[in-house]
Amino acid sequence: MQKKTFTLIDNRTGKEVEYPIIEGTRGPAAVDFRNLFKDTGTFSYDPGYTSTASCNSTITFIDGAKGELRYRGIPIEILAKEHSYLETCFLLLNEHLPSISELHNFDLELRHRAFLHEGLRNLFNAFPDNAHPMATLSASVTALASFYQEHLDMNNETEYHEMAHRIIAKMPTLAAFAYRHSLGIPFIQPDIDLSFTKNFLTMMRAYPGGKMHLGPLGHEEIKEIEVRALDTIFTLHADHEQNASTTVVRNVASTGAHPYVAISSGIAALWGRAHGGANESVIAQLEMIGSVENVDAFIARAKDPNDDFRLMGFGHRVYKNFDPRAQVLKKLQDELKETLGLDSRLLDIAGRIEEIALNDEYFVSRHLYPNIDFYTGIILTALKIPKNMFTPVFVIGRTVGWITQWIEFKKDPSSKIARPRQLYLGD
Ligand code: ACO
């Protein structure tokens, strides 16, 4: 029988050491190097964790070569087409899709938990009017920790699920409050009669009293197609295995900090342009390019090794063929083009970039394909969500993923404090 081990030879001494290979249920196996330092006195060196599995998990699976993404074994294309975001949340937390009554109860509970403690409102006033909503959102989630002093019993599912449901339910309210504060307009309270996604759109657009009059914020009633489009975007963002922000959430969890502080740290990590912040940068870049005629010049800049300009919404650490989330969104974008009146100037520029990049040797040889962020911006713009709220929308969708990963980390008996070592090159 084939031996499931991995032998390393230290050529300085000729010493051989053998390490177990752990098979996954899908995807590559991992070599268990946990004893490497003890056995050899050397560390593995892997900045950016390009070859390191930091944990084991049963939540999300990605096959980057095949462009495959599954939550709890179910392909993302099926979830996006046949299930709602709340069903997806339930699936991630409970490892199975909900029955009708389970979904009803889950939905009802989230509606009840969407309200914020009145004391939290004052926090928003401390921020300048022009504060980026991501700054306000991250701070308000940290503040939320002070309202719920959690010492959770991880053997008590009801207790830790309550903690998870609360943060999922409140995130749209916090995000909408952050946005409305940035405009200096009155907050809109959640409406218990509205679904998760419609509620968020309402809290973004409505006038006090929940009305949708003609005006600068809301031109008409929220359409069902808008709700479905945003719900799909939330589903596509719900989890993505050990990405940068999730790794941050797990690392903060490893120190024993409050779960909402871990989520707040995840929000901070997501904000960066190399990660979730890319969705805001994509539209800014399309606007900067301005017209189809200018695309070639920007592509040339992206390819120039002496220019640090990057095409936002292109490339991914894991997907080296295509991003399946981007494919779902591309279809959605085509579907919404007429019904929602997507911005045709931006669509033309984006289409030209896509066309060149998918055929250009520079992008093809580096496996640089459009990622999810390339498509979200144009759709979100049509939903009247402003640029600075694109990354908060990502946060709302990803909160369930972060908290599910937090729970998995806390329940895993092999979890340890995250404490990497270094290769010292100083004096
Ligand atoms: N435009 C132009 N060139 C690029 C791009 C891009 N968007 N992305 C990568 N490259 C080039 C790099 O210059 C490098 O070229 P080289 O080998 O000649 O030096 C090569 O492709 C590999 O790039 P890395 O930065 O090493 O790849 P890595 O896996 O570390 O980074 C990342 C992935 C951060 C997503 C990167 O592709 C990028 O910055 N993209 C733009 C930002 C973006 O869209 N982020 C969203 C990611 S999805 C998400 O987080 C939700």
- Form type: globular
How large, in whole angstroms, is the Cα Rg?
A: 23 Å
In what order do the strands lie side by side in the largest sheet? Answer: 1-2-3
Q: Beta fraction of the residues?
A: 5-15%
Number of domains: 3
Bound molecules: acetyl coenzyme *A
Which fold does the CATH topology of the largest domain refer to? Citrate Synthase, domain 1
Sheet with the most strands? 3 strands, antiparallel
Number of strands: 6
- Average pLDDT rating: 93
Tally the helices: what do you get? 18
Which CATH architecture of the largest domain?
A: Orthogonal Bundle
The assigned structural class equals: mainly alpha
Order of helices and strands: EEEHEEEHHHHHHHHHHHHHHHHH
Share of residues in helices = 40-55%
Say which CATH homologous superfamily of the largest domain is assigned. Citrate Synthase, domain 1
Low-confidence stretches: none
Tell me briefly what this model is.
With 427 residues, the chain is mainly α.
Give a description of the structure.
- This protein is mainly α and 427 residues long.
- It has three domains: 5-69, Rubrerythrin, domain 2 (Single Sheet); 76-276 and 404-411, Citrate Synthase, domain 1 (Orthogonal Bundle); 278-382, Cytochrome P450-Terp, domain 2 (Cytochrome p450-Terp, domain 2), CATH 1.10.230.
- The chain has helices spanning 36-40, 76-82, 85-94, 100-113, 118-125, 133-147, 157-183, 196-205, 224-237, 244-254, 259-270, 278-289, 295-303, 324-341, 344-359, 361-365, 372-382, 390-411, and strands at 5-10, 15-22, 30-31, 60-63, 68-71, 74-75.
- It has a three-stranded antiparallel beta sheet. Strands 4-5-6 form a three-stranded antiparallel beta sheet.
- The radius of gyration is 23 Å and the shape is globular.
- The protein binds acetyl coenzyme *A.
